[in-house]
Amino acid sequence: MTRQRKPRARELGVPMPGTPGALNAITDVPGIEVGTMELLSSRDPSLATRGIQVQTGVTAILPRGGDPVPRPVWAGQYSLNGNGEMTGSHWVRDGGWLAGPIMLSNSHAIGPCHTAAVRWMIETYGAVWESEHLWAMPVVAETYDGVLNDINGLHVTEAHARAALDAAQPGPVCEGNAGGGAGMICYEFKGGTGTASRRLEIEGQGFSLGALVQANHGLRPWLTVAGQRVGETMGEDRILDMVTERGSIIVILATDLPLMPGQLERLARRAAIGIGRGGTPGGNNSGDIFLAFSTANEMPLPQLSGAWRTMICLNDELLDPVYLAAVEAVDEAVLNALCAAEDVSLARPAKGICRAMDTGRLISLLGV
């Protein structure tokens, strides 16, 4: 998004544990690229064809960038609460890997995002995809943005999803009202896209672990920052007098540390602890769905490989700091989404405003 970036949690002085990477983003993991696009009737009034606000978008994650050679990334998946969708997750649990893009958008945009990702794979991988009868099963996940967006207008098209894919690049990641997070609400503040990372050192070797979240979950009284229940004090401008959670959160964890699929599934589970640090218990109506992948152990697709595979992986006895890095990165990514977000008018009902979190007040409550 072409707007001035707001200070992130660490820049504001929020005490966050752990050592982040250079960007404090999922793109600290080498090779990963992220692209975003937004559909905003505040910028383009023609989008609101039914007189209803459009506030949505798409986030695209390319685990191996635009590499024209199809190589899997090893992966694991976990659902804390399944009131949501993540395509391809059945195969990740069975096969332990994925190939191609990961897409995030709103609940009614799964179809166009999936089609765009499949077409991107067919075009990017070219003759190999055609001659070998390979199939495309990209990961597309969603959260519901119908309070701030005309979700039933089905405004996201394949072209919009492809624009997010074509925009993918290394470097800083747009947060807050960006990409698939454009219309999302978090702890009844404006939420959305957030990211963070941690550095890891194992026997003298450096590795990165990054998290990207689409944060659309939580009730205001639950909000906890740096161990303090600040949401109980920040009770003004709540959304629709919510008493039960009606949102969701998608968490994508990435690392260049060599981990096996079973280890990555266990790593994905730790995202639940990460979002729990922010205060949510994982409400009944929330879709809390997590994916972890590793770019290490690069090799051809199984269909193009020989009989044997040779892989290395971290000893399970050394996983504790990896789990901690994931918990810390997820917690900070959610907070970065809240810090980056900006006010948005409600679409349904068409009155009121979803306010961004007052970060100045947050810092005052934290006493830092």
Tell me about this structure.
With 368 residues, this protein is α+β, with helices and mostly antiparallel strands. The protein is 24% helix and 23% strand. It contains seven helices and 14 strands. The protein has a six-stranded mixed beta sheet. Strands 1-2-5-6 form a four-stranded mixed beta sheet. It has a two-stranded antiparallel sheet with strand order 7-8. Helix 3 (110-131) packs across helix 4 and helix 5 packs across helix 6 (320-340). The longest helix is centred in the first third of the chain and has 22 residues, at 110-131. The chain is globular and about 60 Å long. The two termini are 30 Å apart. The mean pLDDT is 95.
Summarize this structure briefly.
The protein has helices spanning about 10, 90-95, 110-130, 160-165, 260-275, 320-340, 360-365, and strands spanning about 35-40, 55-60, 75-80, 95-100, 100-105, 140-145, 185, 190, 190-200, 205-215, 250-255, 285-295, 345, 355.
Uncertain segments? none
Largest sheet: 6 strands, mixed
* Spatial order of the strands forming the largest sheet: 4-3-12-11-10-9
Mean pLDDT: 95
What structural class do you assign from the helix and strand content?
Answer: alpha+beta
User: Which bin fits the share of residues in helices?
Assistant: 10-25%
Gap between N and C termini, in Å?
A: 30 Å
Overall shape: it is: globular
> β content, as a range?
15-25%
Radius of gyration (CA) equals: 19 Å
Secondary-structure element order, N to C: HEEEHEEHEHEEEEEHEHEEH
Count the beta strands.
14
Number of helices: 7
